[in-house]
Structures are given as C-alpha cells and as structure tokens.
Structure prediction request, 127 residues.
Amino acid sequence: MKTICIAGTIGKDAVIRRTQAGEPILGFSVAVDDGYGENKQTMWFDVALWGKRGQALEPHLKKGTKVTVSGDFSTRLHENKTYFTCRANDITIQGGGDRPAKQERRQEPNRDSYGNLHDDLNDDLPF
Prediction:
C-alpha cells in the first residue's frame, strides 16, 4: 500500500456514481501546483471516496474548493497517459467553504479602577 496526502483545489464538482451492487462512490479531481513562475505545472489526481461518507460530502465538494485528501495512491495507464489516483481515507475541507468567516469580537482586558490590568486567572490559583 502506498499512502499519499494531497492538498489542492477541486477541478470540477464531485459526482456520485454507483457500483452494480448499488454502493455509492464519490469521484472528483484535485489540482496541485508544482513549481513556480515559468516552471509551474499542475498535477491532477483522480479521487474516489467509497460509501456513505461520500454521499454526505458531495454537496460540499464543488469546483474551486480547497481540500486535503489522504488515502491509498496508485496510477493507471490509459492511451499511453499515466493518471494519478487516490482512494480516499480522509478528506478535510480547508477554510470556511462557501460560508463567510465568523467575525470574532475581541474582548477588552479586565482593568481595575486605576487602569491596571487585572488577571482573573491568578484569583483561582490555590497558592
């Protein structure tokens, strides 16, 4: 078994296919940039996620989504071209997806009446 971890961008919306037995397989491709400037190349990985997890993730895996995928790595040859494939064990969606980032409100530090910082943690210490 060869394990791989891929961090990249989904190239097109994920699609669910089914085996003859009816088991769902989620399929999508991930683009990974290699190099920079004139030497920059894009490597493509075909990813498959079997079972109900694929069905649950399908609505979230759209073109342009940044993901990290880990799983079993293999290659296949088709018309003298080598394709990289990954049977996914774990998928992590990077960032907040299509939802806007939640704005966190900064809490002001506790100050006493003289303007000195007051540390609440020291009040709970038994020594």
